[in-house]
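Lab notebook, bench 4. Still working through the backlog of constructs that have no structural model yet. Next entry is a single chain of 375 residues. Request: give me the structure tokens for it.
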Amino acid sequence: MKRKVKYIIKLENIKELSPQEREELKEVTEKFAFRTNDYYNSLINWDDPDDPIRRIVIPTTEELEVWGKLDASNESKYTKVHGLEHKYPDTALLLVTDVCGIYCRFCFRKRLFMNDNDEVARDVSEGLEYIRNHPEVNNVLLTGGDPLVLATFKLEKILKALAEIPHVRIVRIGSKMLAVNPFRVIDDPDLLKLFEWFNTETGKKLYLMNHFNHPRELTKEARKAVELVQKTGTTMTNQTPILKGINDTPEVLRELIEELSFIGVPPYYLFQCRPTAGNKAYSTKIEETIDLVEEVRAKVSGLAARVRYVMSHETGKIEILGKTNDLIFFRYHRAADPENAGKFMIYKRNPEAHWFDDYTELVDEYKVEFQEQTV
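Model written out:
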């Protein structure tokens, strides 16, 4: 029998929360939208107030602390037409929906969910036309919201339209659905047929960019969904932010990226949590997180260790490379400005930094070289 997952958008329907907790969290949900489902809630240990799955989906009053910006990476700067961002020459982001399977409390696009927006499918016609008119775009990322919230026939229309554009060679789907509702895949053979068609009949390649944040999300149902998608020829990867109280210990992070590599979903990026409004409780200090990432990398195979620790900054994707006693090292993995492509940067350390903008003392390379020679 198919599993009917029940979605929940009101705290009063979470029977595990006390009346006092619901009242305390009311102000939070009035500001930042709330959405979960009964499957994902079943992964929570409700006896543990610090349960990591609970922290992912259940609001906390800490979100009311004033910190950050709603558009921390200034995505609006790169919005070319309604629902399309074009930041790097070969890659376009098509925002196909404003809804997710759950609303992660640390979401960097929570601005999309603040006005009771229940519009599942966006009009992507302008975005598709933009892609048709830009032959440099060979890579399209479907995002939102979560594209797998869309009915399969709606997703099919988008994939078929992209398949007809000769210069588009890769389509990526960014989704947390396999973690929050794997039955979306398990119980929909039409979705699997669509994926298989795209990979075998179009001469193009489909990637599913998963968002597993904690090893407890890798349930037997999630693993089954992964297996089914893999059989369609779809390439799978995973990306997650480093999240305080969720995956910021060596034991948890190692288990997460190692298990993902074991099931053929290799880790792609570990993100520094963006300084989005409401996210301070989830953000870790960069210089402590470097140590965490390197400790874990040293204990896993190369397939898991190849994950990159990065920030999605307004100016590009900045890889966080390492540090010495006094200095920290960055490199542009992708740069919005071609002049910054591959640029290597050295800053004086700031142990309290949560974001690239917290570093202000750029060190001249020749000065560093001279200092090293004199040590």
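Notes after review: The chain has a mean pLDDT of 94. The domain at 75-283 is CATH 3.20.20.70 (TIM Barrel). Flag for follow-up if needed.
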